[in-house]
Design a protein that fits this description.
Helix 3 (145-156) packs parallel to helix 4 and helix 8 (355-378) runs antiparallel to helix 9 (382-399). The protein has helices at 78-93, 124-133, 145-156, 179-189, 206-215, 229-241, 347-351, 355-378, 382-399, 402-408, 430-438, and strands spanning 11-17, 21-22, 28-38, 61-68, 99-105, 109-113, 120-121, 163-170, 194-200, 220-223, 245-253, 259-267, 271-272, 278-281, 284-292, 295-304, 313-324, 330-343, 412-416, 421-424. The chain is α+β, with helices and mostly antiparallel strands. Helices cover 30% and strands 31% of the residues. Strands 4, 5, 6, 7, 8, 9 and 10 form a 7-stranded mixed sheet that branches. The protein contains 11 helices and 20 strands.
């Protein structure tokens, strides 16, 4: 793991939005914590220790590209060609000096380039060699994604770099290993590299692909038309090349008697981090946030405080950002946010809901009811599915989530969006249903 000095990393800031006022007997405190990293995200900004980068080349990084080469990639034959072209586009997007490899994924994992357990270092010559090696990719065999991830982990671990990242493409279900094997592979890779996962076509399992991205703090999406793979891979790699610092953790300290109810990322996507806490000291825990470039994310923190009398106030939680270091130490990124609790008999103050908290509570519910609605639809529960997806339409309308509203309109006929009155469509294209499910956790930022 890279050792960072304070002057090398982007500038992080923490802003807290909440209504700190509680009624007599009130115990639950919610806050939206906006974390922003600025002053970076461009090539030429070095963030790793001096031995880990070349001047002007950006932060040191290693990338493993895992390409599904199972037999189904030959149906239609253009799918395999599109996958090769997309991988070539990603390779072209690598910065000079970035370590990389290409993995052929079937029921086993095989190194395509450079081979022999090594990583190549990107330059014009190695890019050309890698793209030549892609010609050897052909479809045949099964699908065992856990083996792909384990090989990627082994290869990425050979590089002394700041950022380790994977890109995984699959077109089918993980049918040639037990679910517990994939789960074990994900557990062994968690915290070692981030990974973006993509499903191409419509024969893959949404929950498998989104589960991989969730566990490894990456993004998940559908590429229904294989012809769109090259553009998607290029964008994914550009984003990966913009990452400047890895392993940032959100540290939450709470006083005696205070319990953490949940910690969720709520923008740009919903991701429940509550169960990923690692203890970091007395009444303190760390929640992983992955790699950062020049970007901003929102987190919903909810704690339960002891009861207190009218007029009393307390610090309910303190949020800071840290980077774990070798030997169990951490680097503090020098910024913090305070979550307060103040007890009042002013009913107007204590019953007011902070706009940011209200917005993201609705966004989290939106993601949940979409998943529930689609599951009920698949199970044949028409009434249940209609109720959940109607609520989703209502929430998308209220929050201004136009992208999700458009996706919902391909699954239901919207009679009245503000009231959530809908009818399930009799026929829904599989790609439309999978797109809605895959992108259900994408949120819109609160309107300031």
């Amino acid at each position: 793991m890279a050792n960072f000095s304070k002057s090398n990393v982007p500038q992080f800031s923490v802003d807290v939005y909440q209504n700190e006022y509680l009624p007599e007997g009130g115990r639950e405190v919610s806050a939206i914590v906006t974390v922003s990293a600025t002053g970076g995200g461009t090539v030429g900004t070095a963030v790793a220790a001096p031995h880990l980068y070349s001047p002007g080349a950006g932060p040191s990084a290693a990338v493993a590209i895992m390409v599904d080469c199972s037999g189904s990639m030959d149906y239609p034959p253009t799918k395999m060609r599109n996958a090769r072209d997309a991988t070539a586009a990603a390779i072209d997007t690598l910065r000079d000096g970035v370590h990389f490899s290409v993995i052929d994924g079937t029921h086993v994992a095989r190194e395509v380039y450079p081979g022999n357990g090594r990583l190549a270092v990107a330059d014009p010559a190695t890019r050309a060699q890698a793209k030549e090696a892609l010609r050897r990719l052909s479809a045949g065999g099964g699908t065992a994604i856990g083996t792909w991830l384990r090989l990627a982990d082994r290869l990425l671990s050979t590089a002394d770099v700041a950022i380790r990242h994977g890109i995984l493409l699959t077109d089918g279900r993980n049918e040639h290993e037990a679910p517990e094997d994939l789960k074990a592979a994900l557990e062994s890779c968690t915290g070692r590299f981030t990974c973006d996962a993509r499903g191409v076509g419509t024969d893959w399992e949404v929950k498998e692909v989104t589960g991989i991205a969730s566990a490894l703090l990456g993004t998940a999406d559908i590429v229904a038309d294989p012809a769109a793979l090259a553009a998607d891979f290029t964008q994914m790699m550009e984003t990966a090349m913009g990452k400047e610092v890895a392993d940032v953790a959100l540290r939450l300290w709470t006083p005696v008697g205070t319990a953490v109810k949940f910690v969720k990322q709520v923008a740009p996507t919903v991701e429940d981090l509550t169960g990923r806490r690692t203890e970091s000291g007395p009444r303190s825990g760390d929640y992983p946030t992955g790699s950062w470039g020049d970007e901003s994310r929102d987190y919903h923190v909810c704690v339960e405080v002891p009861t207190a009398n009218i007029g009393q106030e307390m610090l309910a939680a303190r949020v800071s950002l840290v980077i774990p270091q070798p030997g169990g130490t951490v680097q503090n990124l020098g910024t913090q946010g305070l979550v307060r609790a103040v007890w009042t008999d002013d009913m107007a103050a204590s019953t007011s809901i902070n706009p940011q908290v209200a917005h993201y509570t609705g966004q989290a519910e939106l993601a949940q009811v979409i998943q529930q609605g689609l599951d009920l639809r698949k199970a044949g529960d028409i009434d249940g599915a209609t109720a959940k997806l109607g609520r989703a339409v209502q929430l998308a309308s209220v929050s201004g989530n136009a992208d999700t509203a458009k996706l919902l309109a391909k699954v239901v006929d919207v009679v009245d969006a503000p009231t959530g009155t809908v009818r399930l469509k009799a026929k829904v294209a599989e790609a439309d249903e999978m797109t809605l499910e895959t992108r259900s956790t994408k949120t819109v930022r609160v309107k300031k």
